[in-house]
């Protein structure tokens, strides 16, 4: 484990609070503009640093684009995904391959997802690349009530990761 704490990375990378939880900073955005399925235009890709502390939650949300997650450091990160068919799965983002962690995770577009750090008193630093590029107008945060109506079978993860109210 890296001896630097979360505040070191927040300060040195210039991270700011993210509406879903944790901290982020956009690092790259494509100069290439494409037409999307939704009849609008987006950058080909965007990329951010994202840092989540073990006391933080990346609340359940949805994007209209695929998102690729890349492990950079700290503790491993659990990415919780409810896909378009309503199936739930957890992906472990990290480098402990023997324990099922992987250094990259893909969250398919239109999935509802969030993340959490399992290990106490730690943090996870990752990179996220969205394609077509991220725009806040494509970002949906959900409340527990909204998700429990549609996915009551996933109550435990919804109560853990969804907002109580907006």
TrEMBL record:
Gene3D superfamilies: Jelly Rolls
InterPro entries reported for this sequence: Cupin_DUF985, RmlC-like_jellyroll, RmlC_Cupin_sf, YML079W-like
Residue ranges of every copy of the DUF985 domain listed in the record: 9-142
Protein name from the UniProt record: Cupin domain-containing protein
Pfam families: Cupin_5
Originating organism: Bacillus timonensis
Superkingdom assignment: Bacteria
């Amino acid at each position: 484990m890296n001896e630097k704490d979360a505040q070191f990375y927040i300060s040195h990378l210039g991270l700011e609070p993210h509406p879903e939880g944790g901290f982020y900073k956009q690092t790259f955005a494509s100069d290439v503009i494409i037409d999307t399925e939704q009849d609008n235009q987006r950058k080909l890709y965007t990329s951010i640093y994202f840092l989540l502390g073990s006391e933080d939650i990346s609340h359940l949300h949805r994007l209209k684009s695929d998102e690729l997650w890349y492990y950079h450091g700290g503790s491993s990160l659990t990415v919780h995904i409810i896909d378009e068919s309503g199936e739930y799965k957890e992906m472990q983002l990290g480098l402990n391959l023997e324990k099922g962690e992987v250094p990259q995770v893909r969250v398919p577009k239109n999935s509802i997802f969030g993340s959490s750090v399992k290990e106490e008193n730690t943090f996870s630093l990752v990179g996220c690349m969205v394609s077509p590029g991220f725009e806040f107008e494509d970002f949906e945060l959900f409340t527990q009530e909204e998700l429990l109506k549609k996915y009551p079978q996933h109550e435990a993860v919804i109560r853990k990761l969804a907002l109580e109210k907006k």
